[in-house]
Amino acid sequence: MNKPKLQRITASECLSLWRAGKFETHFGPVREQKALALDPDRGELTESDRCELLDCLAQMPCPTIGIEADEASPFSAALDVIAASEDEAALLLRNVEAQPLAATTLVQLLRASASLSPEHALTMESLAYGTLQAGSEHRQWLQSQPLPSVSKDDSAPVLVSRDNGTLLLELNRPAQRNAISMAMRDALVEVLTLAFVDTSIAAIEIRGRGSCFSVGGELQEFGLALDAATAHAVRSLVLPARWLLRSAGSTTVFVHSACVGAGIELPAFAGTIVADRKAFFQLPELSMGLIPGAGGCVSIPRRIGRQRTTWMVLTGRRVNAAQALDWGLVNEVTEVRPRNGSDH
Fold first, then answer.
1. What's the pLDDT score for residue 344?
2. Which of 51, 115, 206, 338 has the fewest CB atoms below 10 angstroms from its CB?
3. Can you give the three-state secondary structure of the chain, one letter per residue?
């Protein structure tokens, strides 16, 4: 299979296009070039040029990719993602070209929300996510999926207990690998709200029962919202991330095996994440025509930075526990023993 052609330009060429007003005609999700790769400039840039370049990159209407970029370069930090090699850059471009609307929405959101408070950034994420829910890329993914058949589950989606001043929460859908359903979401909001107002609770611990911590949102429930605007309104009221954010300093999450999508987006709000040595982390939402929508565009960049978050989303690759510790995605790697679940 032929590798996609990556448009590579130097910093000087980038500035020339910017000054000529040609970015919008050359690059973007509805243009021929869906992404841009910036090469180190062989010439010297003035300080004024560098400032202008930073402004230009912040407004690029597509993802910007650096290939083996020098971290000391004046513009490396302004790029959306750094590829370790030409092959990795080709993977990034291939995924961007497959879902250009979602990829561009992601980088635009991460650029803008970096300067916002986490609370306001969550609102921005929900609006962007809702836009993509109503978009053609997500609709195409939904049409490729089997008809939803959500089975009735009478078990409590979250088990709650207490050990003196510590509140213990367990995700309790082990047969579904703790996929986060609407019922589980609502249960988390309810108990986290109570924990926030109960001053006798000094600490919160969260675990997952069964074979893994969580594989993310319940896919059987995707596409069930009446419309994107209503879905945003609901998220504004019942988003566990908002309550985890308020209790971050007292919350520890213990994760094991798969931590996918919301299965890492939500733990990333906690003050401490303790990961099992065999845990892995993944953000697969781009393949669905979406971006992380459980708070991950807010929590994860604040742990590992904008570029690494973009890399996780645009590559869809797994990050193991050792790498997650090195990046700061988790705080400790040890042995995490999950409590028994029916499928463990």
1. 38
2. 115
3. CCCCCCCEEEHHHHHHHHHCCCHHHHECCCCCECCEEEECCCCCCCHHHHHHHHHHHHCCCCCEEEECCCCCCCCHHHCCEEECCHHHHHHHHHHHHHCHHHHHHHHHHHHHHCCCCHHHHHHHHHHHHHHHHCCHHHHHHHHHCCCCCCCCCCCCCEEEEEECCEEEEEECCHHHCCCECHHHHHHHHHHHHHHHHCCCCCEEEEEECCCCCECCECHHHCCCCCCHHHHHHHHHHCCHHHHHHHCHHHEEEEECCEEECHHHHCHHHCCEEEEECCCEEECCHHHHCCCCCCCHHHHCHHHHCHHHHHHHHHHCCCEEHHHHHHHCCCCEEECCCCCCCCCC
